[in-house]
Predict the structure.
Amino acid sequence: MNNWQKVYTTPNGHQAEIVKAVLETHELPAVVMNRKDSSYLFGYFEVFVNTEDATTALKVIADEINFE
């Protein structure tokens, strides 16, 4: 994953998938890494994009996504 940069972290898998979907609508390929332990309820999900798309992805996330 040398060409990938983390742009979002959350404990909720559905939020990570929403972020991925929004990024993909802007033609920014994204992947979700599940870092949640399967035996215990701790861990998190991370959304990664290509390094060259990271600045644009962070702007899209800031401008278009609000989970509050």
User: Anything to note?
Assistant: The first strand starts at residue 4 and ends at 10. The radius of gyration is 12 Å. The mean pLDDT is 93. The longest helix spans residues 13-25.
